[in-house]
């Protein structure tokens, strides 16, 4: 048993450096391609402009040498402000109760599963 009543404060500091290792763990899931695209479309639905029709466009392609494939997803929802993008893709940094994004991991798992994220603005 630990006697916390007699515990004294310590000047000891633990530093936790940021790591990108979380991305491989997030990408190791059982989502299929449709699930992953659905996560990204769900984010557009969650931020759609009230009273407006939501348009989502998905473009699939390959590099000229066909060595890389890609897809581009775009929408006309309210979007993520540029200054909040880092927070938006940081695992579990933005959580909303009672939604599919409740734990703040859906878009991050989709990105991690699909490969690289390139921001086109």
Describe the main β-sheet briefly.
2 strands, antiparallel
Strand content: 5-15%
Tell me roughly what share of residues is in helical segments.
25-40%
Tell me, briefly, the overall form: elongated
Strands of the widest sheet, in order across it, are 1-2
Distance between the termini: 57 Å
Q: Could you report the average pLDDT, rounded to the nearest whole number?
A: 78
User: What structural class results from the helix and strand content?
Assistant: alpha+beta
Q: Number of DSSP helices?
A: 4
Number of DSSP strands? 2
Order of helices and strands: HHEEHH
Number of domains in the coordinates? 1
Spans of at least 5 consecutive residues with low confidence: none
Task: From the alpha carbons, calculate the radius of gyration and give it in angstroms.
Answer: 20 Å
